[in-house]
Amino acid sequence: MNTVYKPHTPIRYFVSPSRGASMNDNFIREALERLEAEIDPVTRIRLNPERAVLDEALSAFERRGIEPLRRSRLLAVYILLSSALERHAAPLALEDADLTRRILDGDYLYSLYIQYTLKCKEEPLLKAMSPFVKKIQIARALGRTGEIRLLPVFEQVLADLREGA
Question: What is the pTM of this model?
């Protein structure tokens, strides 16, 4: 079997590194650069988070008093988890030609979410988010595919962790 290696395409940037870039632009660019360095090019996984979602997450981090140096790391963690959940969100259909790819990509991204969160020394966040993630996984295994609102849970966990500190 001959496989053709396709060179890794970098994560699409929403902003260019310019002097007039806003703080959010800088946080987003840094988070995407971090993820580009973490994702193995062999996977050919492409992340295309929506700019509005990233801005909303950064606003939540600011509301919760997350220090600026930590925001791009947390944004990268958030992108990984939301991307993993998104890949697993579509209903399972055996005739779906992309089913295996979506499952494997979702599994890889979830594993990377765990590794990267630990690498960033965010173990309390990982522990606090795990019951929510497990509930989603169980619901999906039972065929319940409702809309997931990750950001409110993520924000609440950050607030709880901050209060407990």
Answer: 0.83
Residue 2: pLDDT band (50, 70, 90) is very low
- Say how far apart CA 9 and CA 88 lie, in whole Å: 22
Confidence of residue 93 (pLDDT cuts 50, 70, 90): low
In this predicted structure, the answer to whether residue 28 has a pLDDT above a threshold of 90 is yes
